Each structure stands twice: as structure tokens, then as C-alpha cells.
UniProtKB/TrEMBL annotation:
One of its GO terms (molecular function) is oxidoreductase activity. This is FAD/NAD(P)-binding domain-containing protein. Keywords: Flavoprotein, Membrane, Oxidoreductase, Transmembrane, Transmembrane helix. Pfam families: Pyr_redox_2. Gene3D superfamilies: FAD/NAD(P)-binding domain. PANTHER family: THIOREDOXIN REDUCTASE 1-RELATED-RELATED. The chain crosses the membrane at residues 20-39. It comes from Candidatus Wolfebacteria bacterium RIFOXYD1_FULL_48_65. Residues 21-310 form the FAD/NAD(P)-binding domain.
Length: 326
């Protein structure tokens, strides 16, 4: 049975399905919002599609390197980004939208969302960022938010005087362990490889702390618990022995994966799925598609750099639309 909202959405979608935008921006994180602001100031006929605002930044308890702010929470930043975007006069915004696909059509591209809406555009700017990688082991999904965490800056305080496990020995894992130091009574780092892969200086600092134990050649098999996490099982790859580790918190820190699935097949990607771009213009291998922020190859995973990349992209898109195509 159709709801009133569903009927109105379908009607509106049918009206705009054949309308051609100059630019569709996909994503509402810092890069997407910066792109929207600059597209508005250039008076491009632009549409921004996003599920929500803030991107991965919204999960940060405190951001201390965002230029112009001594410190700001991720939630405050997300609200500020949305407010600045909505203050623009020449940008159409549709939030609560998840994009399903982008395909090539005559004269541009067609973007489809999961609600059945379609939008046509001359150019596309991808700013969908990246997502936390998952272990995909029993118990991970079940105890997510109940002892299984992905954002150490957000959830480390929950480990006050408790034992915590960090899965991952790269920079993400080492940063998570460092975030836990002021709170957890004990921190165990589990790394699949024979050695840690993260920054040597951070490794040295963690090894000197008596609260930190490092276990290499450890493959996590299952996360245990009742209502909340109580432990995990891992295999010692050196001996093949399965071991149990008691813990009240598991921080999964095995990196990020770019959210590039919707343009897979349209543009060249790295083996890890990042969009390969010309870093001067941020244009992808496909004419008419640009990308900025964490989704790109060579990304520094920084808010400030993502914003700069998005601005470069929009300026180049403007040139493409009104110079190159003339």
C-alpha cells in the first residue's frame, strides 16, 4: 500500500526524470558540501544527493585539525556543513537518498536511487567517501554497538577501567590503541601478519606502555557474548591453536573501503576500489565523471584535503561545461 509520501515522491521523481542537470554531486560529507557551495556560487544547475550529512567525520568526538576551529565535534561539524549548504541559493538538495547506480546515456549520465528515482546530468562528482571494513566473523554484526566498535575516538571512553581488544596492526589499529590508553585497563592488539604495519614511532610508544599487549599472527574467528561482548576466539597462526581472550570491547580497525560500487565499470579503479583521478583536476578516467575525498586514489583521509579536492573538481567541471564543451 502506498503512503502519501511514497505517492508524492513517485510523482516528483517522474517530473525530474527527464530533466538534465549540469552537475549531480553524490555524497554529503565535507567534500560534497564544499562542492555544493562552489557549484552554487558558480550558478551551476546542480543537485546534491545524500543519505545524510557529515560523512565519516560525524563519528569523531573531537576534531582538532579542521582549519578555523581549535576543536569541533563531528556532530557539530556535520550540522555546520548542512547549514552552510542550505544557505546557498543555487543548489538543489535531496537528503535521505541512497544512490544505487550511475550509467552513461546520450549527453551525460543517469543516476538512480534506491527509491526508484532517476536523475539526468551532464556531469557527476563522486564524494561518497569510504566505510569501515568489517571482519565478517560470527558475533560481529550481532554485537555491533554492544561491545563491537569501529570508531575509537567516539567509543574509547566506554572502556573506562575495562579490557579492550584492537583488531588490526596498521595505522588505524595503532591509533585506536592510542585512543584507548587513557581509558582501558588493558589493551590487546591482534594482528594477522607476523609484524605490525603501522607507524614505527607509534609502535614504539605503545610497546613501552605496560597496559598494551601485542599479539601477531592472530586470526579472529568469532566474537563472543551474551547481551554484550565478553570475549573473542582467535587462531594462533604460528601453532594452529585456537585461543580465547576475555574482553568487554572489540575495536575493529582494519582500514576503510571506498564507496565506489555505484560507478564500478564506468571509471578506472585501484585494486582497493579507489577512483583513479588526475590530481590537478580530480577528473576520473571517464569523461564527465569527477571524484574527490576519501573515495579517490592517493587520498590522505583528511577533511581539509577532501574539501580542497572538491573545490578543484567543481572549478574544473565549470570549465568543462562552459569552455571545453562550447
Amino acid at each position: 500500500m502506498y503512503t502519501v509520501y511514497g505517492i508524492l515522491y513517485t510523482y516528483y521523481a517522474s517530473l525530474i526524470s527527464n530533466y538534465m542537470y549540469d552537475l549531480i554531486i553524490i555524497g554529503g560529507g565535507p567534500a560534497g558540501v564544499a562542492a555544493g557551495v562552489y557549484a552554487s556560487r558558480k550558478k551551476l544547475n546542480a543537485l546534491l544527493l545524500t543519505k545524510d550529512f557529515g560523512g565519516q567525520a560525524v563519528t569523531s568526538a573531537k576534531i582538532e585539525n579542521f582549519i578555523g576551529h581549535i576543536a569541533i565535534s563531528g556532530l557539530e561539524l556535520a550540522r555546520a556543513l548542512e547549514a552552510q549548504l542550505r544557505a546557498q541559493k543555487h543548489i538543489e538538495i535531496r537528503d535521505g537518498i541512497m544512490v544505487q547506480s550511475v550509467k552513461k546515456i546520450d549527453g551525460g549520465f543517469e543516476v538512480a536511487d534506491l527509491k526508484g528515482g532517476t536523475y539526468q546530468t551532464k556531469t557527476v562528482l563522486m564524494t561518497l567517501g569510504s566505510s569501515y571494513k568489517h571482519l565478517n566473523v560470527p558475533g560481529e554484526k550481532e554485537y555491533s554497538g554492544k561491545g563491537v566498535f569501529y570508531c575509537s575516538t567516539c567509543d574509547a571512553p566506554l572502556m573506562q577501567d575495562k579490557a579492550a581488544v584492537v583488531i588490526g596492526g596498521g595505522n588505524s589499529g595503532l591509533e585506536a590503541a592510542r585512543d584507548l590508553l587513557p581509558f582501558a585497563s588493558k589493551i590487546t592488539i591482534l594482528e594477522f601478519a607476523p609484524t605490525l604495519k603501522g607507524d614505527a614511532v607509534t609502535q614504539e610508544a605503545l610497546r613501552k606502555d605496560p597496559k598494551v599487549e601485542i599479539v601477531t599472527q592472530a586470526q579472529t574467528k568469532e566474537i563472543l557474548g551474551n547481551d554484550f561482548v565478553s570475549g573473542l576466539m582467535y587462531v594462533d597462526l604460528a601453532t594452529g591453536e585456537e585461543k580465547k581472550l576475555a574482553t568487554e570491547g572489540v575495536f575493529v580497525a582494519i582500514g576503510m573501503r571506498p564507496n565506489s560500487d555505484v560507478i564500478n565499470g564506468l571509471v578506472d579503479l585501484t585494486p582497493t576500489g579507489n577512483v583513479i583521478v588526475d590530481h590537478k583536476t580530480m577528473q576520473s578516467s571517464a569523461k564527465g565523471i569527477w571524484a574527490a575525498g576519501d573515495i579517490t586514489d592517493g587520498s590522505y583521509n583528511q577533511i581539509n584535503t577532501a574539501i580542497g579536492e572538491a573545490i578543484k573538481a567543481v572549478l574544473n567541471i565549470h570549465e568543462y561545461l562552459f569552455t571545453d564543451r562550447v
